Amino acid sequence: MPLSRIQPDRYQDLLTQKIHSVSELMSPFSPPAPQSYASPPTGFRLRAEFKMWHEGDDLHFVMFRKENPKVPVVLTEFPIADKRIQQTMPVLRELLRESDILHRKLFQVEFLVSLAGDLLISLIYHRRLEQAWEIAALNLVTELQSHAIRVSVIGRSRKQKLVIGNDFAREVLPINGEDFRYRQYEQSFSQPNGLVNILMIEWVCKQASNLCGDLLELYCGNGNFTLPLSRHFDYVIASEVSKMSIKAARENLVDNGIENVLLVRLSAEEVSQAITAKRVFRRLHYLPKALDQFNLNTLLVDPPRAGLDEHTVKMASQFPAVLYISCNPHTLKRDLQTLHKTHDVAQFALFDQFPYTDHVECGMLLTRR
What we know:
With 369 residues, the chain is of the alpha/beta class. The chain is built from 10 helices and 17 strands.
């Protein structure tokens, strides 16, 4: 995103335009007026990645414009990033410049920060990292911590990963008066806008408070929704294909003492095949009973930008209630063209996860007629 698009003084007008555009897109399905949840206009982004540009012994954080991808734009500020990322960037740049071992063939830096205060920095190289790099990286962590920065550093190159500290950021999300603890692993998905994520989880929990029985959740990730939703259902069957996300979700369930969530490593399409008995999966053998024996009245889906596959849409049409979280209104509209044949849009919400872009997160509660 070009820095010129970041206009905090116009944030509310830009959000109003976005709400109007998405409302028009969804109008064929007669939803109620959307509840809208704004983001802070600056300092909201918990993840950021930058290319590193070398000029002799100097080093800069840069980005590239789509229309001119070979000309770097040097960053002197990045106001949408969390303030801890903003504060760390100039300190880190100077420390990297001073160390030949740390900046040699460094081509990318990634930041992951949590609302709880952890900062994870990944340094990515076009060379193999030796023991000397580990010593220099340990000194880097010590220097950053002297600036009151609670940090871990990861070095990456081809088929290599070296960790100084942790390879995850610890997060604590206050949801409806209860704190939920998460591990967010490096290079695994986590919501980029922490404060809006809390609003989104609370909205989903509010819709769930009027539902009952058991929940089937697809694309559960590290348990972002799973943990708080466990308070509203007898059982939660949560599926995910990413091994790292499943690992994080299992650790998060244990850390929060949650025992009514059952994790399965299946894709959305595989879950639909299991529910309709088209395939038998050994990965489901540990469940206390067959999937069709659970009281699965509610389905939660939070798919990637491509939306739902046709098998999952067909399966969703059989559920009394569907909670659909979408990061792409256009694929949501496509899926609703099928789901609206059986369901009405009972609740509609817009969460501005991505200010100054055309992207917006949508939440819908669909109820079967």
